Structure formats: structure tokens, C-alpha cells
Amino acid sequence: MNTIPNRQAICDILIEKAAGDSDIIVLCSDSRGSASLTGFADKHPKQFVEAGIAEQSLVSLAAGLASCGKKPFAASPACFLSTRSMEQIKVDVAYSNTNVKLIGISGGVSYGALGMTHHSLQDIAAMSSIPNMRCYLPSDRFQAKVLIEALLKDNIPAYIRVGRNAVPDVYDDNIPFALDKATVLQDGTDITIIACGEMVDAAKKAGERLVKRGISARVLDMYCVKPIDRVAILKAAKETKAVITVEEHSIISGMGAMVSQIVSAEHPIPVKNMALPDSEIITGNSKEVFDYYCLNAKGIETVAVGLMENV
After folding, report:
1. Axis-axis angle for helices 6-18, 141-151 (nearest 10)
2. What is the mean pLDDT of residues 152-170?
3. What phi and psi, each to the nearest 5 degrees, are found at residue 157?
4. What gap in Å lies between CA 107 and CA 162, rounded to an integer?
5. pLDDT of 128 over the 80 cut
6. What is the predicted pLDDT for the residue at 87?
């Protein structure tokens, strides 16, 4: 059972890479503990900036550092980073096309017990709507590591959302990875399940359960929400009979909406979006919230069986 959260995996790879690259700078908003960045601050104190509880300043500081040739990674709770700093992200980072990598920690309902104020269920919609901003949701610690390694090689903005707790391993050290390309976890010809972030493990398990029921399920890890992999989506639409999208986000304007838009415009087949409702979410830990809204393997399986009965 994995005990390493994605945020820790990100810190570990940044510690490793910063040892040989003094331009890598990590910033946080009084959240080094929450972001698992204490180790980085201890190891590379001259490459660490504490901005305090000031998310807007955090983003602008990172943009300033990037304009001087540095490679800043700015980490803050996703619920605050994607809302309080929206203008700075839009103008200082994206409009100026500066090399800032934004890390939204404790995304989705990771802070479930704290309620709606601490949920980040609109960040995919918000970040993806900004020109020049990429949006990524790694599904496990291995993907988080290789994603950061890939992003260190370019100089354009990106938003990376990770949860708070350790999640099951979807991959291992031999992870297949291509930047901005969906990963096929399981091939199939009846139905396609497209998931991102923490929902990928549930989608993978649902795909395995469907095969046992005689339903050939394709499972795609769409960690790259923007730019979204249109080729993989259209290939699935043409080669399977229906599509299910699964995400830890509002049902409004998330990955599911993007997939639906592409499929309906270019190769219409039934698409079912599984996400959190456009209402206040119940209070509870992540598993309790996911189970309540059927965002788990059983829930995905049930929706898939229902779809297949009608196509």
C-alpha cells in the first residue's frame, strides 16, 4: 500500500534536480508543511521563498523570478491559488507567458472535512480557460515525478493539481509517459472510460471489473486536461460505442465538458460525465465524498453497464 502522497513525490524530485540547478526556486504561501516542502527548504534554503499567507504576491513573485531566468515552482492550496490569485495568474504568468509552474496542493475535496471554502472544484475550469496556461492532474506518485521532470525541460506556464493524501499506485518505475498525451491503461472496443487525477485508479479498477462482466472497456488516463489529447478522444469515439468521463471536479466546465464538446462536434456517440454536482458538497473525507457521489469503481461500473444496455 503506497504511503507517499503526490505532493511528497514532487518535493523529492525538486530536491534532486535543484542540487544541480540553482535556477530552480520553490515558493510557498505559509504552506511548506501542507505542500511537503519542508525537506526542500531544509536542503536548499537559498532556493526557497516563503511568501506568507499572500497567494497573489506568491504568484507575482514567481513571475518576477521567471522573468529573471529562474525556474520557479509556486505551491499553495489549490482552493486559494486558483481563486485568490486568478488575476495574477492570468496577467503576470499566462499573459506574459512566464516560466512559472503552479502547484495546487490538496486539490478537489482533499480538505473535505473543512467544507466548501476549502474545496477546489472549479480550478480545472478556471485554469484551463486562461490562454497559455496548461493544466495537469497526475494520477499517482510515479506520474507526478515524471511530469515534473518533463516540465523542467520547458519554459512556459503550467498548473499542476495534486491531492493531499497518498493514493494507490497506478504505475510503477517503468511508467509509460508522453507529455500532453493520454495514457492507455487498458484497451477495449465496447466503452471508453476517461479519467484524470485521483479518479484514474477507480477508472482502472472499474475497467477490470467490466472485463469480467464481458464488457470490453478502454481506460484512458487523461492527466493532461489542457492541452487535452483530442487524438486519443476521437480514436476512442470511433472505436468504442460510448464514453464515460470521471473527475474530481464540478460537473460544470471540467474535463467531461471538454470531452463532450470534442465528441459531439466531431464524432457523436453517447457521453456520460461523472463528477461532483453543482451544489454544496457533503462534509467528509475524500473516500466518504467519493462513495456518496458514486465516484468509485462500483459507481463507474454501474454507469457503464447502463450505457451499454442502451447503445
Report:
1. 40
2. 96
3. -65, 155
4. 6
5. yes
6. 97
Domain boundaries in the chain? 6-161, 183-308
Specify whether the CB–CB gap between 39 and 69 falls below 8 A.
Answer: no
- Domain 183-308 in the same topology as domain 6-161: yes
Cell of 107: 486539490
Do residues 124 and 225 lie in contact, with contact meaning Cβ atoms separated by under 8 Å? yes
164-214 per-position pLDDT tens digit: 999 999 999 999 999 999 999 999 999 999 999 999 999 999 999 999 999
Task: Look at domain 6-161 and name its CATH class.
Answer: alpha beta
Entry pTM: 0.96
Helix-helix angle 297-308:199-212, to 10 degrees: 50
Distance CA(71)–CA(153), nearest Å, equals 10
Separation between Cα atoms, residue 242 and residue 9, nearest integer Å: 35
- Is 80 exceeded by the pLDDT of residue 218? yes
Residue 273 three-state SS:
strand
Cell readout for 120 is: 477546489
- Cα torsion at 90, 94, 100, 102 (round to 10°)? 50
Q: Are 119 and 79 in contact (CB under 8 A)?
A: yes
Residue 237 near residue 263, CB atoms below 8 Å: yes
- The architecture in CATH of the region 183-308 reads 3-Layer(aba) Sandwich (3.40)
